[in-house]
Amino acid sequence: MSSIGFLGPKGSFSEEALQLFMSQQEDWKENRPDPIPFSTIPKLLSACDRHEIDYGFVPLENSTEGQVGATMDTLGQTENIYIFKEFIHPIEQCLLTPKPLELSQIERVYSHEQALGQCRDFLETHLPQAEQIVSLSTAQAAQKVSSTQENWAAIGTHRAAELYSLHCQEERIQDAMLNATRFIFVTHSLAEMSPEMSAEDKTSLLIIAPNVAGSLSQILLEFATRNINMSRIESRPSKKKLGEYVFFIDIDGYVFSPIIQEALWSLREKNVSTKLLGSYPKALPPALTSPCS
Q1: Which of 159, 229, 240, 256 could pair covalently with 252 via S-S, beta carbons 3.0-4.6 A apart?
Q2: Where in the numbering of this chain does the Prephenate dehydratase domain appear (predicted)?
Q3: Average pLDDT per run of 10 along the chain, which is 293 residues long?
């Protein structure tokens, strides 16, 4: 049986999204990969890079809080993993407590940094007295709160409330009701990428531009002059030198289409380093789901 890693423990949004995706895939219903929880995203992606697991499933960006830095940084550092699929999952945050409480009684709130950021307005308005403490995942936060009778709370999934016997104090506390996270599937084989060219595909690249004036505009021009749509660009520190950055870029189209190959070849001639992160079908945005209840 194949295996797939996710950010755990059980009850995380990663597990919730993974279970939903696998239930929708006809080809995975009989040959479902065995889900394996990891405590951090770098550990998960490194395990996939070393062939210790067959696939990885990680969050890449959130519609409210933006990029997931740990995912992007580790993708940039690993050598042999590629994105072959994406999945967009609606995120509805719940405030979980070990027992029913008045909001004014809550002294601490635990959660992943992304979840805390997605609920910033709620926390500032309704829990200004509560200390916010970052956890490795929303599920780990729920686990911690479930082991105490202190006036603590966690932000996480309704499934986590069920798994860890917590009270769902408040539902849908995220600041944006159309809150969604883009998850990606990665593997260590290029064979998983679609062999067919399609305008509905997306290609993700890591680009290291020369640290000279105008280098980024020259990169963007190579895509623009060929009418290649760029749907996303994010910068991250190179981790080698202060002020030096790498760029994560998503463009429309299949990487081995002639027009994209032409653009990449032109970049190489200009000494621009490019790394293929993956080429895969675009995911459909989700409909707003019902509140957790």
Answers
A1: 229
A2: 3-188
A3: 90 90 75 90 94 94 86 89 92 93 94 93 95 94 92 93 93 88 89 64 88 80 93 85 84 92 92 90 67 39
Pairing outcome for strands 94-97 and 66-67? unpaired
Burial of 283 (0-12, 13-18, 19+ CB in 10 A): middle
Q: What angle do CA 212, 213, 215 make, to 5 degrees?
A: 75
Tokens 């001639």, residue located? 269
Distance CA 194, CA 213 (A): 37
pTM: 0.84
Give 10-42 pLDDT, tens digit per residue.
Answer: 999 899 999 888 888 776 667 788 999 999 999
Query: What CATH number does the domain containing 75 carry?
Result: 3.40.190.10
The Cα 158–Cα 13 span in angstroms is 10
Q: Could you list the residue range(s) of the whole structural domain that residue 186 is in?
A: 3-91+179-192
CA distances from 208 to 120, 151, 241, 271 (A): 34, 48, 13, 9
